[in-house]
Amino acid sequence: MQFKRYQTAALETLDTFLGSIKKTPLRHAFLDITDEKYNQDWFGEVPFVCVRIPTGGGKTLVACKSVERIMSTILQYKLDTGVVMWFVPSDSIKTQTLKKFKDSRDWHNEVLNESFDGKVKVFSNEEALTITPEDVRNNLCIIVASLEAFRKEASIQKKYKVYKENGALMDHFLNLKDTKDLEKDSEGEVINSLANVIRKNNPLIVIDEGHHTQTELSVQFLSDLKPSFIIEFTATPRDGSNVLVRISASELKNEQMVKIPIVLESRSQWEQVVADGLVKREELEKRAKKLAKEYIRPIALLQAQPKSKVRTTVTVEDLKQMLLARKIPESQIKIKTSDVDELEGIDLFDKKCEVRYILTVNALAEGWDCSFAYVLISVANLGAKVAVEQIIGRVIRMPNAKRKTDDALNRSYVFASAANFNEAASRIIGGLEDNGYSRSDFVGVAEEKEYSDPLEAKKAIKKDLKVPMMAIGKQKLSFEDLLGEDFELAKQNPDCDFKIHYDLDGQATIDISEDEEWLQGKQLALSFQYLDGNHSVDELVTWLDKKLRFPMLSPEDKIAFLERAVQSQIKKNKRTLPELSVNRYLLAERLNLLITERLETYTKKAYKDLLAKKKLVVAPFDSYPATIALKSPVPKVFNKNLYERIDSINGEERGFVERIDLGALDNIEFWVRNREKVDPFYIQGWKKGKFYPDFVAVTKKGNIVALEWKGEDRISNEDTSYKVEIAKEWEKLGKGKTHFFLVHNGKVDEVLAGIKAL
User: Fold this and answer.
1) Does domain 5-247 bear CATH number 3.40.50?
2) Distance from CA of residue 513 to its chain's centroid?
3) Between helices 316-325 and 270-288, what is the axis angle to 10°?
4) Considering all CA atoms of the chain, what is the largest pairwise distance in Å, rounded to the nearest integer?
5) What is the model's pTM?
6) Of 60, 140, 555, 753, which has the most beta carbons under 10 Å away?
7) Extents of the domains making up the chain
């Protein structure tokens, strides 16, 4: 399984945030990444962030990986154990989520178990009513629950089971010293409830489809569970959410995850709607049979009206009779309603499966997924929210997440019974927006042939731009080139140190704020039982090997180094194996820094040697493409931009680039925004990461100018100094044709003057 680029980027942004909040207050860490104010009104100092991913983008998979990131950084003192509350908006999604997490063949299960060495236990909130202290102490316990299961009734007479006294949970509350956060009965005794078990363990809370938790009551009960971290995943963040990551629909389309646009045809007569939809499905199947090496059997979903005693409705039975009258074999037709489930046990992706038509009322609203579904035929009231949800979630996913050679198979189709097209369109657009999409992702059938993606931008200036890049001969320079084949980590000095603190009883405590950083005091006293547990060097080294990801190193070399590092801690630093084992995350952090330092010391010398021996050059490689995908276009047409439009930039950057574009520099032929990890130009130095300057400008004399914009607070930090150093080497190697400028508010006029001279 490979994560998509936008999924990886989302996790990298989360990593950056998690690293920052270990050293700086929440509001500052959030502002540094988003340029937005952090809302602390709901959960105070408890971190609370939102990841926005449109429907169909794999939110749950990203959420699973996010749990690992959070547990291994901010919550590392929990030692990969404790409670994760996984809230979903409905029982059907709860059922689907539990199935994914418990099925050993499912990617979600694979990610979770790989992240936590198989020490994961998954419970429904009903199953968690018998959770044991050993479960929580030795595993990461994920409790999947609907929001409704944890909302208290206004009336004190009735409470949900999670808040009730439960003798099976009594062992969790033996010999408690601190009970201030726990709910008590009328006599002041702690209630042996699941809610109190959760409070006692200060859970990580994951909220799936976070926009469903809009009420004050929801925020209240989440706070009441005493969380240590809250992260929500949603297609449409509500006001007040701290949106850390914003993934656009265009990124999903660019990664071939979704069938966009959605093509709508509406008719006032339901019989005609059905007939048209069936013709389209048959046409798509003929096209699918022509695909090379890919099997697709397009499926049509037909949504009937509910039965009514007071008016005539088009029922599931009516639709089935219409299909049979068209000589469609009954084996190709299945019913999926709240009363009848003919899909149970059927693998719709199996080549032997005959199913091409699924009849429903609203049973597919959530908790159902088959990317072969291409056509939705709705004779129900399209204004009902459930119908629109079906359009998005059921027919929009791309089979095999791979764009097809026939463009008709890259689209979704909706045939709706409505009084007029505009009425149907407005309702569908509302549903699109509820799921993270927009008006631009929808077209009418008459526009289908002329459709052009509004989030794509073609070249406005027909020039081939290849920016020279750092190279060795005819090959782009990479970090791996600098490392070469002779580097052996196992021969490097493995010594490093870190502090282990002890409490008044002489018990070791984990401290993830060694340098008196912001999270000082997040410590966990370890029981003697755990300290005296069975530990081994092999187990600790295996764990470190998994957590420390350095793909450029051979597994044997890395393991040999880690074995030496652990032995060094035991022999030179006089650490006991139990101490190292329970402080493993702190040890991993120090070793990660140490290995990075050893690698970059070696690669910096190799880099400097190549420069001294004049073996490094700059050479052109990849062209900027003819068309690019945009996330959030700036609503402005520039005069000298290489493309028709650019992606969003902050106000300071926009002010600077407008001065380049609007004639202040008459020697500029064109310029382009250079996007990190997307566009082809970067500068490689001796560190692993690549440096992507913000803008590239080309002068009429053929000079190429790389420009990096920095805010005032980042002009002189270590990262900026490194980027300037390697950019200046790139500039020198260009022999007068490549130029670099660091730009900030206090230097704009000076930089413009420098560019004007080129």
Assistant:
1) yes
2) 27
3) 60
4) 89
5) 0.82
6) 140
7) 5-247, 252-452, 469-473+618-756, 484-604
